[in-house]
C-alpha cells in the first residue's frame, strides 16, 4: 500500500485504509482498547491511533516505547470534537525501530534551558516544530518578496573576507589547521589576514551599482562576548541594497518587506502561530496583525532624546539617566520609546555620526548621519540601515575618523569614483524577526543549533 503523510490532506483520506510511518509521542494501554499518539513531522497536529488486542503486531505495539518508529495501517476517521482532528483505527502495527528507555523527551513540560542542551532532539517537540516551521516559511517569504514582488537580484556575499564591514572590531579570525599546528602560530588565510564576515553590505553595495536592486541572505558572525537573549555569535541577516535610493525609500522598503512577510505567515502558518500564542506569548497574533496594517511611527534621534528626558522629568528611572546628544541608546531606552511611548514599531532616524558606522551618509548638519533603525516592542532593534556616504573625500575622511585605514577598503571607496549616485540599504536580523513573530523570548530558541559564548555543543 502507498505510504501517506499525515499532511497529505487528511480530509480527502477520510474513511480510507492508509498506511503511515511515524514516531510515537505516547503509548497507553487500556483494557479493551489502547492508544498511540504519533507524529511524522509533516503536520502540527498529532495523529491518534486506536488499537485492539486482535490486530496484527499487537504484542510489539504494546511494548513500543516513546520515540520509537512504527508503521500503522488502518482506517482514517475524522474526530473534530477532540484535540486531535483525526485518528486511525489500526488493523496492523509494525514496530520498525524501538527506542531505548531513557528518552529525554518524556511526556512532561521541559524548561527551555534543558531543551537547549538537547538541540539534536528538541525540534521534535511541538513548540520547536512550530518555531522552525515559521522560520522556514519566513525565509521563503523573504525570497519571494524580493524576487517576485520587487524584482531584486539575490547576491551571495563571501563568508571569509578581509573586511570588517561595521568597523566595530568584532570579527572571528580565520586560520588553518596547518598554521595552528605550526609553532609560529599565525592567524592566517594563506599568509593573509582574514575573518568571518560581520555583514555582506559592502559587497552588496558593489552589486547594487550593477543591478540597482539586490539583497543578500546569509550567515554573519560577531565576536560579541555578550550573554544577552538577543545576541548570537552566528546569526542570519537579510541585507537589501538599492542604488539611487535614499533613507525614505529605505523606510518604505522595510515596511513593505515586514508587512509582506508577516501577512504570508498569517496566511500559511496560522496553526503554528496559534499554537505558539498558547505556549509563548498571549496576544501574539493580534500583535503581528497590527504590523500587517502598517502600524509604524517615525522619530528622529533628537525627538527620542526629548521623549526620554520628559520621561525622566516625570519620574521614570532608566539605568542610564544621563540623556545627551551623542548617547548610544540602550535597549532600555529603545524599548521605552516603542513599548511605552509609541506602543508600536518605531523608526528612529538621523543618529549622531560618532555612534554610527563610517559608511553612513553625513547629513548637511555635519553632525548626524542618514541612519535608520527599526525598534520593535519586546525586542528593541530589529533592523539597522542607512543611506550610504556617496562622496569619495567624505568617505575617506570618515574611514580615518573611525580608525580604519582607507587602503584596506580601497575597492569599496573606489566605487565612489566611477559614478555613484546614492545608495541605501539595511540589515534585518533574521533571528530577531523570528523571535518577534513566534513570541520566543530567547534568540537561542529560534536557531536550530545556536552559537553563543556558552553554546557550542553541536
Ligand atoms: O545594525 P547592524 O550591525 O547593521 C549592519 O550590519 C549593516 N551592515 C546593515 C546594512 O545596512 N546592510 O545589524 C543589522 C541587524 C540588527 O538590527 C540586528 O537585528 C541584527 O542585525 N544583529 C544581530 N542579531 C543577532 N545577534 C547579533 N549579535 C546581532 N547583531 C546584529
Ligand atoms: Mg545596528
UniProtKB/TrEMBL annotation:
Organism the protein comes from: Mesoplasma corruscae
Claim: Metal-binding is one of the keywords in the record: no
GO biological process terms on file: asparaginyl-tRNA aminoacylation
Keyword set, alphabetical order: Aminoacyl-tRNA synthetase, ATP-binding, Cytoplasm, Ligase, Nucleotide-binding, Protein biosynthesis
Reaction catalyzed: tRNA(Asn) + L-asparagine + ATP = L-asparaginyl-tRNA(Asn) + AMP + diphosphate + H(+)
Principal subcellular localisation of the protein: cytoplasm
Gene name for this UniProt entry: asnC
Keyword ATP-binding: yes
Gene Ontology MF annotations: asparagine-tRNA ligase activity; ATP binding; nucleic acid binding
NCBIfam families from the UniProt entry: asnS, PRK03932.1
Name used for this protein in its record: Asparagine--tRNA ligase
